[in-house]
Specification:
12 strands; 8-stranded mixed beta sheet; 4-stranded antiparallel beta sheet; globular; about 325 residues; alpha+beta; binds aspartic acid
Length: about 325
């Protein structure tokens, strides 16, 4: 066994049109506090000898339980007024992955994705089948209403009207809703490296407000919203999923770094500002390279994020 290394972790709480002038001090403090709680939960796992996958899951659970983020409790509504959740986790050692989509009754979808990784011969389970597996694995079930919040219900109404061309988005909303004005933002994700040098990445989301027809986004698609490979790094993405999927964003960033020899941060910046933006994509990623360098990059006005580096230095951020 090699010598123990210092762990590090980085998380995001979603990217989007987060406008500084519309974000009140109170709302900003609430986001920063939950981001800190999440990144600290993950870092604690790492310092207590847990592996990077366990740390990523622990960090994401905190954000799934917070009403502020578009994951778990507080997730966005579908067109039909239900909540359908997607999550994924991947290990950079051995390239193992578990993902779930269309989850309606499992409190922490990231825990189910983790269980798929560990205890299923499959990589991706959907809807009823995924929940059947959850029952076999003794998961706790909750009513779909558990995930619902008033803010997201109001947001569905606003987005529905805007999608139907009846109003412009967000003209008369209060500041809290201004922080939620995007259809998609506030997906959550984490990437960590543990004392063995193993990298893991995970992402969890409700998808996009007013999504229809069983829409699946990038989050549970390995290589699009979530990817990890110890040889090059791990990435968790957030933003408009249709563009992230078409860009195969997380894998493409890792591939560019691997094939060209440039750093993961440089590869990320090139792709987020270049190919991804050129396609019309808005969003960003967090990542970690094998030397525990933290990667943060976004082309949207803001992305909620937080980190603890190998020296134990930590921080939270929203804007560039
Ligand atoms: N990427 C997510 C999706 O499209 C949304 C987000 O990141 O906010 O499902």
């Amino acid at each position: 066994m090699g010598s123990l290394r210092k762990p590090a972790i980085v998380i995001h709480g979603g990217a989007g049109t987060i406008l500084r002038e519309r974000l009140t001090a109170e709302v900003e403090a609430a986001y920063r506090s939950d981001l800190e709680a999440s990144v600290n939960a993950g870092y604690r796992v790492l310092t207590q000898g847990g592996n990077s996958r366990e740390a990523v899951v622990a960090a994401i659970r905190v954000m799934e339980d917070s009403p502020l983020f578009n994951a778990g409790h507080g997730a966005v509504f579908t067109h039909e007024g239900t909540i359908e959740l997607d999550a994924a986790v991947m290990e950079g050692r051995g390239l193992n992955a578990g993902t779930v989509t269309g989850i309606r009754h499992i409190k922490n979808p990231i825990a189910l994705a983790d269980r798929v990784l560990q205890h299923s011969p499959h990589v991706m389970l959907m809807g009823e089948g995924a929940e059947h597996f959850a029952r076999e694995q003794d998961f706790e079930f909750v009513d779909n209403d558990y995930f619902a919040t008033e803010r997201r219900r109001k947001q569905l109404e606003q987005v529905r009207r805007a999608d139907e061309g009846l109003t412009r988005l967000s003209e008369d909303e209060d500041d809290l809703d201004a922080a939620l004005r995007d259809k998609q933002h506030s997906t959550v994700g984490a990437v960590a490296i543990d004392s063995q040098g193993d990298i893991a990445a995970g992402t969890s989301t409700g998808g996009m407000t007013n999504k229809r027809f069983g829409r699946v986004g990038d989050t549970p698609i390995i290589g699009a919203g979530t990817y990890a490979n110890n040889a090059v790094g791990g990435i968790s993405a957030t933003g408009h999923g249709e563009f992230i999927m078409r860009a195969v964003l997380a894998h493409d960033i890792c591939a560019r770094a691997s094939y060209t020899g440039i750093s993961l941060q440089a590869a990320t910046d090139e792709i987020i500002a270049g190919k991804f933006a050129d396609l019309g994509g808005s969003g960003g990623v967090v990542g970690m390279d094998p030397d525990a360098n933290i990667v943060i990059s976004f082309n949207s006005p803001g992305m909620y994020h937080a980190w603890v580096d190998v020296n134990g230095r930590s921080g939270t951020g929203i804007f560039k």
